[in-house]
Design brief:
With about 120 residues, the chain is mainly beta. It is built from no helices and 8 strands.
């Protein structure tokens, strides 16, 4: 059943060191499919002031979404896009603006759809 709407998500990155394979952890989300504790795993290391890499949103039990993140690390903002995945993320599409707050938490604000 197709559905779409607003995406609001917060993550913390205490485990992220800018290396390939590092991850951030979802702390809250308005989607049932993306629960607190899910991980965003980064495929490539951060560059000089930027992060431009494929990511996997891993919600456990074989539920993963494929995406790409582009961030300006100096400005603490960028975009995240997702297209497809496995398990409950089959048919998942999302586009979000990414920002960081003064507490070091990262926020995704955008839209999502499921085919």
């Amino acid at each position: 059943m197709a559905r779409s709407g607003d995406l609001q998500l917060t993550k913390e990155c205490s485990e992220y060191r800018g290396q390939a394979g590092d991850f951030c952890t979802i702390t809250s989300s308005n989607l049932d499919e993306i629960q607190a504790g899910a991980k965003v795993i980064y495929a490539e290391a951060a560059g000089e002031g930027t992060l431009d890499t494929d990511v996997v949103l891993d919600a456990g039990s074989g539920n993963t979404a494929k995406g790409h993140v582009v961030l300006d690390l100096a400005a603490n903002k960028g975009t995240a896009t997702f297209s497809g995945g496995t398990g409950k993320f089959v048919g998942f599409e999302a586009h979000a603006d990414v920002t960081a707050d003064s507490d070091g938490l990262w926020h995704w604000s955008g839209t999502y759809s499921f085919d």
